[in-house]
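Hi all, posting the design record for the shared folder.

TITLE: backbone redesign
STEP: 1 of 1
STRUCTURE INPUT:
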């Protein structure tokens, strides 16, 4: 069964940090075009950070630049999203995506 499983969400105060993990299973791991998205209820899902087609180049949304870092551990088939200097507006459900597949999400809540 091919799947992506996110973890690491939670409640944090503004200015704090969280690290999200996305572990892939069921097919050979590749970070090519893998990324993180987020969604607030009632709004469209938006891109946060991701790897390019080559699996190396990193791309960030303007809202994430300078605060978030995407990384990977091929041996663990896992992609991470390190989030620092969190703001209340970062509160959302965070989803991991690989080509053709979404995880179920992990909730991040940032209190002011």
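Okay, here is what came back for every position:
SEQUENCE:
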């Amino acid at each position: 069964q091919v799947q992506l499983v996110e973890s690491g969400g939670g409640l944090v105060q503004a200015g704090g940090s969280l690290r999200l993990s996305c572990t892939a299973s069921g097919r050979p791991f590749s970070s090519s075009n893998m990324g993180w998205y987020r969604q607030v209820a009632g709004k469209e899902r938006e891109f946060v950070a991701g790897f390019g087609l080559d699996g190396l180049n990193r791309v960030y949304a303007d809202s994430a630049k300078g605060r978030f870092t995407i990384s990977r551990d091929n041996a663990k088939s896992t992609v991470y999203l390190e989030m620092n200097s969190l703001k209340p507006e970062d509160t959302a459900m965070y989803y991991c995506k690989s080509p053709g597949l979404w995880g179920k999400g992990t909730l991040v809540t940032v209190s002011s």
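COMMENT: The two ends are 40 Å apart (CA to CA).
Let me know if anyone wants the other runs.
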